[in-house]
Every structure is written in structure tokens, then in C-alpha cells.
Amino acid sequence: MTTSTTATPAERAPGMMNVDKLRAQREAKPVDDLGMKTGELLARYEKVQAAVVCDVMREHCLMDQAFPGHLLPLRPNRTVAGIAFTIKSSPNTIITGELDFRGRMLDDLHADAFVVWDTSGDARATLWGGVMTATVSRKGVRAALVDGGIRDTQQILDKDFPVFYRFRSPNGALGRTMITHYQIPVQIGDVFVRPGDVILGDADGAVAIPRELAVAVLLRAEEVVANEKKIFSWVEEGQSIEEITRKGGYF
User: Fold this and answer.
1) What CATH number is given to the structural domain containing 187?
2) Distance between alpha carbon 1 and the CA centroid of its chain, in Å?
3) Are residues 125 and 171 in contact, defined by beta-carbon separation less than 8 angstroms?
4) Domain count along the chain
């Protein structure tokens, strides 16, 4: 016999909190079909800038899609896009079971993933290093965004693996932190990320694109990029600000 833990409107007491809409918004399974083959979508995203994508999402009234500025690209010359694979950890001194759970998480990582790691504000441990980089690279993972520490920096650079991170430290994770969940919705700064959303990162930082808008945002971003090429050509020709503005240009 299955027992429901969610009260229906008829069963809910007058003073009982109603979080059904919030639950549906935050925990609903993202749409399966992106509307475009994953490889093509990601390759095309890697030809546009994160800044342009942020401008396009403003047209959708999405103003909080850029990850905090303290998350720096280890390879600022790389533009990388991938599908969000979320991880949640927190500072913890417990050791037993941590490596087993981490192993299961690594087994479940998929090709084209962009790891998004919510560390619960961990300011001591490093969550990403050389062995992790080597392991996920073999699985076809594209990049990682870790709201915390990394180490083995030279090994990561040698693998040419894009990482966005908060700080570097020789401190390891074991005995300092524990992975508690993965493939759940997470929030880093103002950015709410669900597994399956699209993540784009470049020299300016990283941005999250809701999965259901991924194709629409891409197509509009490509339009903006084409228009900006015209604006740059008008500037190079020496046209005045008034002329450029009159033709729809901006600065």
C-alpha cells in the first residue's frame, strides 16, 4: 500500500503551507527533447559569447543566469558548452562512505556533461583535481564549474580541461567535505540550475540556460552575433554614433 506524503487541496488544513507550485517549478523533470541534436547544439553555443547569451536571456526576463564573478576560468582562452550534471556537497569530517558515493557519482557522469558543483560555501577543501580530471575526460565530460577549491592545477592544465573555480589549495577533500547528492537542482549565487540545463562558459565567466529555452536562446544569440559584426564594420568604416544608432546599432 502506497501512502502519499503530499496533502491535496481538500485535505490541507487552512493554515498549512502550500508549496505545490514551488515544488513543481523546482523539481519538475526537465524536457527530454532539446529540439536539436546535443552535439550540434553545443558546438553552435561554443561559437557565441556568454555575454551575448546573457543579453538574450534578458529578453526572456531572466536576469540571474550568470554565475558569480568569483568563479574564474582556469583556461580563459576556451569557450565550452555542456549539459549540466549537478553535484551537492558540504563541509564534513566524516570519511566512511564518502569514496563509495563519489564512485557512484563518477559512474553516472555522462558524455557532454558540464559539471556544476555546489559546495555549500566550502572554503577549505578542494573538490577537483588531477585524478578527477583524468577520469571524467575519458568519459567525454566537457567541463566543470566548482564553487570552491581545485588542486593539481598543472595536471588539469596538461589535460586541457576547462574548469571554473573559486580558489586553489593543496587541501584534499577526504575528511573535510562530503558529497551528499547529485543530479538534483542546485543554486550557486543567484543561479538556479537543474540537471539537463545548458551551461556555457568563456573568458567572461559562465551562464546557465534553461533546457526548455536552449534552442530559442541559441538562435537569437546567433542573430545578435551577426548583427554585432555589422556594427563593428560600421565602426571600422568611421560611421558616426548617430548613423550607427539610426540603423539599429548599439554600444
Assistant:
1) 3.50.30.40
2) 40
3) yes
4) 1
Query: Is the pLDDT score of 1 beyond 60?
Result: no
Confidence of residue 2 (pLDDT cuts 50, 70, 90): very low
Report yes or no on 7 lying in a domain. Answer: no
Inside any domain, residue 137: yes
Q: What is the mean pLDDT of residues 30-56?
A: 93
| pLDDT-based confidence at residue 234 (cuts at 50, 70, 90) | confident
pLDDT at 5: 43
Q: What integer pLDDT is reported at residue 8 of this predicted model?
A: 57
Note whether residue 21 is domain-resident: no
Assess if residue 128 is contained within a domain: yes
Kindly write down the DSSP assignment for every residue of the chain, as one continuous string: -----S--TTTS-TTS---HHHHHHHHSPPPS--SS-HHHHHHHHTTS-HHHHHHHHHHTT----BPPTT-EESSTT--EEEEEEEEEEEE----TTHHHHHHHHHHH--TTEEEEEE-TT--S-EEE-HHHHHHHHHTT--EEEEEEEE--HHHHHHTT--EEEEEE-S--STTTEEEEEESS-EEETTEEE-TT-EEEEETTEEEEE-GGGHHHHHHHHHHHHHHHHHHHHHHHTT--HHHHHHTT---
- Domain hosting residue 172, numbered range: 39-246
